[in-house]
């Protein structure tokens, strides 16, 4: 097929006729699909953030529990809503609604629940757009070698497994499993902006109500002939036992006392 006909009758110089057209700036009834796809990620991310995303964030906030006059009280957020942008109470004006163009000119923020297509991020008069970042695959373990991991402490090696754990409301926590020189594994994670290092044996016994023998049998499946691997698993369980934590409840009490 000859496509040369599509490249005929092209303008030889730039034209400003569209700028002088009386309909310049007026949106057409049907937008160009390519232009809509260009901003689709921005639009859908915003819509998700102020609807389902906001609801999931509220649900993930743990309740505040305390005792008052021998009664156990629990306070929790049930729902959150973002109201439509409007002028402050007490202002004298004919139009209570606030529009993005006004925020750009006044160098203020466009706040509130957005119902028109697309949504706007205007902060201090500057319009923001969502920047797409390349992030590690969520909830997927990646084995890697990083020389800087050896500086974590005595006995650490450059080998480990990293995983970016993401919850339903899209909050994320990076977790690392560090391989140590003695064959054991150390779990590294951040909780409430604090860095924790936990021998993997404590994490296993805290998550499942299994005996040491049951955990050992599960971990060595497929490696029954490897004496080195079995000795590493035994050492990880022995570390927990040496701290006086033979059961799941003991491990949870042990961790709770040290994290409080």
UniProtKB/TrEMBL annotation:
GO cellular component: DNA-directed RNA polymerase complex
GO biological process, one term: DNA-templated transcription
Record-annotated RNA polymerase beta subunit protrusion domain positions: 38-114
Entry annotated with the keyword Metal-binding: no
Keywords of this entry: DNA-directed RNA polymerase, Nucleotidyltransferase, Transcription, Transferase
Any one Gene Ontology molecular-function term assigned to this protein's record: DNA-directed RNA polymerase activity
UniProt xrefs under InterPro entries: DNA-dir_RNA_pol_su2, RNA_pol_bsu_protrusion, RNA_pol_Rpb2_2_sf
Family matches, as SUPFAM superfamilies: beta and beta-prime subunits of DNA dependent RNA-polymerase (SSF64484)
UniProt-listed Enzyme Commission number(s): 2.7.7.6
Membership in a protein family: Belongs to the RNA polymerase beta chain family.
Listed name of the protein: DNA-directed RNA polymerase
Taxonomic classification: Eukaryota, Metazoa, Chordata, Craniata, Vertebrata
């Amino acid at each position: 097929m000859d496509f040369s006909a599509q490249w005929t009758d092209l303008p030889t110089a730039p034209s400003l006729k569209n700028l002088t057209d009386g309909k310049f700036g007026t949106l057409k009834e049907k937008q160009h699909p390519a232009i809509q796809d260009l901003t689709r990620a921005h639009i859908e991310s915003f819509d998700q953030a102020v609807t389902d995303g906001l609801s999931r964030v509220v649900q993930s906030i743990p309740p505040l529990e305390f005792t008052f006059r021998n009664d156990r009280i629990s306070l929790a957020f049930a729902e959150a809503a973002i109201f439509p942008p409007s002028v402050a109470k007490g202002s004298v004006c004919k139009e209570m609604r606030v529009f993005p163009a006004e925020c750009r000119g006044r160098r203020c923020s466009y706040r509130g629940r957005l119902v028109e297509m697309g949504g706007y991020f205007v902060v201090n008069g500057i319009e923001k757009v969502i920047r797409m970042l390349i992030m590690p695959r969520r909830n997927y373990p990646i084995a890697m070698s990083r020389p800087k991991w050896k500086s974590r402490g005595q006995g650490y090696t450059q080998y480990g497994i990293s995983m970016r754990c993401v919850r339903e409301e899209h909050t994320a926590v990076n977790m690392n499993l560090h391989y140590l020189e003695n064959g054991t594994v150390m779990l590294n994670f951040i909780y409430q902006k604090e860095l924790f290092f936990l021998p993997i044996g404590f994490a296993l016994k805290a998550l499942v109500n299994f005996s040491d023998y049951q955990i050992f049998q599960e971990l060595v499946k497929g490696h029954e002939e490897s004496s080195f691997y079995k000795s590493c698993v035994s050492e990880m369980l022995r570390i927990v036992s040496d701290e006086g934590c033979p059961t799941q409840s003991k491990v949870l009490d042990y961790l709770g006392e040290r994290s409080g």
